[in-house]
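Hey, quick one: can you model this chain's 3D structure?
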Amino acid sequence: MNRPADNPKRPTLRQVASAAGVSPMTVSYAYSQPGRVSAEAAAKVRAAARELGYPGPHPAARGLRRGRVGTLGVVLGERLSYAFDDPQAARFLAGVSDVCAAEGVGLNLVPITGAPTDAQRVAQAAVDGFVVWTTSDDDPVLDAVADTGLPAVVHAGPHGRGMPVIGIDDRAAATAIGQIAFADALRPVVLGFPLDRDRTRQLLTGDDVVDVRFPVTRHRWEGFRDAWTHAGHPAGHLRLAICPVNRGSEGETFALELLRGTEPPDAIAAMSDELALGALRAAARAGLRVPDDLTLTGWDDADAAADAGLTTLAQSLRDQGTHCARVALGLPTADSTRHRWHVVARATTRQPR
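Sure thing. Here's the predicted structure for all 353 residues.
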């Protein structure tokens, strides 16, 4: 009989049955329903399996027979390391993993590279359902996910393709915190996320912001603009500084350029705490007093925001990740897809008059 080192091919269940002198069904039961197999038969199966180097039925084959794979797919419109580098994505994935752990389900991260193989990677993913991290309106992976016919949910948008969207009302939230950020401001700036998948770093005035493909960027920008214009100011006097990545270092660099420029902002509303904390460091480097010289707000209420006394918009990305995972796995959830948010006023903004 060949030892495993002599035979590189995976032994089959039928080979184990033949070596043990039992039926293939008995071998199958020995692994899947051991209570239906006698102790003597089970011992023969285990001995033959050890001799052949048989590890047990292939998980994918078992999943096909059961109609479930036992794995949830999370589609990231980013490189794989983004899941660990971006604090928002990490908090969201923590919520997804909470559900997977409780349900005994695996987690398959499906990274997107922008190459034509992305759709194929999604189509070939052995999963029971998909959670799609917020992406752009024109991202082809949305069609690829929909085409699988598997349960799927999108976090924060885009809407469409028959997939539910779970998140907060970003526009309403941005309006609320923008009213605090821009109170008494003359030269406000929104420190924001990319407009589209090109991720171009640029500074635009309110009249020039068009064709925003990322729904999160679009809705937050619209809310900040609403806060500014409803106070009687022209939209063109509100600027949008677009950061290509959500990193504190990017927020610090861009904010410092603006603060040392010819029209330094007297208010900065950031679309994340990371960008806001970077801007707070830039203000210190520029010798500015916050909030006397510059008011500053963030978004998400991370632990570091509380430590820095940052006024911010609180939401629970972990809860949203949990909700998305439960929907994708067909588990009971709340009927509403909208999650709660609230403004947390701290030391980086002035008290309202």
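One thing worth noting: Residues 87-103 form the longest helix (17 residues).
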